[in-house]
Amino acid sequence: MALGGDGGRRNTTALIVRVSASFLFCFSAANQPCTNRKSSSPLVHLASSAVFPLQGNVYPLGYYSLSLNIGLPAKIFELDIDSGSDLTQPREHLYRPNINLLQCEDLLCTVDDQCDYEVKYADHGSSLGVLVKEYFPLKFTNGSLLSPHLAFGCGYDQKYFGLVTPATAGVIGLGNGKVSIVPQLSHLGLTRNVVGHCLSGQGGGFLCFGADLVPSSGVIWTSMPPNSMGKWYTSGPAELVFGGKATSVKGLNMIFDSGSSYTYFNSQAYQATVTLVRNDLEGKPLKDATEDQSLPICWKGIKPFKFVRDAKNYFKPLALSFTNAKNVQLQLSPEAYLIVTKHGNVCLGILNGTEVGLGNLNIIGDITLQDKMLIYDNENRQIEWAPANCNKLPKSRTVAIIAR
């Protein structure tokens, strides 16, 4: 069963995460495996990158999206970026297949006849559909304009949590499964099997397929465990650091998920975090704002806040210290775990994952990923990050084209 769902991205009051579809189930009426076929050699070897500007924010929208061209002639789809999902899928009725269903001979499918999928989400949403192949017109950083033929999901029966249709036209899966967009581009020799995103705390940012925009210095990284869960981007165990001091919150295996607006801890870790924050606020001029339902825990000051920076001096920085590597920490400044609502209150953007059906899973969501260049390096099995100005696209380090 896949985890997550579109519900976590609809608004900031819905306490649902979309860790999203990470397992793809293909089946046919006969449900019989097809004969294995040898992989064909990639036709083109460019090893460049494709870069996309992003729209959106953590609050009040609750998602970051890109505009992607699909088909010839191209139609533009605004898709929610989701590193917790492999499958790219526009919402039903927005894309109509035209004799381009994925068949058995395609290596992305392992069944007879057409390749169907079923995805179930933790917010009780679901999607049934078929895999199709379509042209994706892309502009690469080396100046090439190409339209690779890529597989994605075409849903014909999609259910959403609370029956609310998501704001975007669908989801672009950035996971590391073979049906994900970037591994397909890598197989064709068009990019490295690397995904990077930079989410601006002021809104917007950029996304990169390939390694051209990976910073040449200042990058911190942690390895993805060999037994990492499913196809998610997971870290080794981490310990929560509060105000520079170690805490009792340990052993947190984190999933990096740009498909989740907020960061989620399991119930035990969440309660311990809330206690640390509340105890540290004693004697400070903040009061509980229980009337503000934007998030579960909010505070009001002497006067309304306009930005997180107005309230940040009341809160200590957090960090996640990864215990499988020496001196490797993901820093969480107050901007990385707080929001200011339309009511002028400051709210905790770390939520109780167990309460919303995530069990013992722990999620690093958009709020914590802001103003950092995040790199998912599937070739070296590493998750990397560095502080970055996500409002400005860095210069590409593209090398010369190598084509066949």
Automatic annotation (TrEMBL):
Stretch forming the signal peptide: 1-30
A Pfam family annotated for this UniProt entry = TAXi_N
Q: Does the keyword Signal apply?
A: yes
Provide this UniProt record's keywords sorted from A to Z: Signal
- Residue ranges of domain Peptidase A1 in the record: 64-386
Q: Which BP terms from GO are recorded?
A: proteolysis
Kindly indicate whether the keyword Plastid belongs to this entry. no
GO MF annotation: an example? aspartic-type endopeptidase activity
Please give the family membership noted in the entry: Belongs to the peptidase A1 family.
The protein's name in its UniProt record: Aspartic proteinase Asp1
* Native source organism of the sequence: Prunus yedoensis var. nudiflora
